[in-house]
Amino acid sequence: MASMVVLATTAVPDHLRGALSRWMIEVTPGIFVGTLSAKVRDELWNAASAVVGDGAAVLIHPDDTEQGFSLRTAGERRRRPLDFDGLTLVAMSPKEDQRAVEEPVEEIWPEGW
Fold first, then answer.
1. How does pLDDT run across 12-37, given as a tens digit for each residue?
2. For the stretch 27-66, what's the b/e string if a residue is b when 16 or more beta carbons lie within 10 angstroms of its beta carbon?
3. Are 85 and 94 within 8 A, CB to CB?
4. CA distances from 17 to 7, 34, 47, 57, 100 (A)
5. Whole-structure pTM value
6. H or E element that contains 66
């Protein structure tokens, strides 16, 4: 039986957005909604997660869980789903310290100034 599916994408290749729009409606940039069978949903997710590249994707679909849905993610982002005894919660990774990765500034003044 078909059920409503939401797939959210961030910074994914244009060809993926085109492929998803064949099966779902893009209600706002990067957010796709559709009524799909489990087979089509799984095939679309396999294709999306394989080509997500530097971007990210999140799939939400109805499931027989306490919350009533399941969550799948692909790509690296600060938010990551964690399973706590069947309950899915979202954890935030700390931001990287930008100052720690910067290279030292070169001296621009000649010696003796």
1. 999 999 999 999 999 999 999 999 99
2. eeebebbbebeeeebeebbeebeeebeebbbbbebeeeee
3. no
4. 11, 14, 11, 11, 36
5. 0.79
6. none
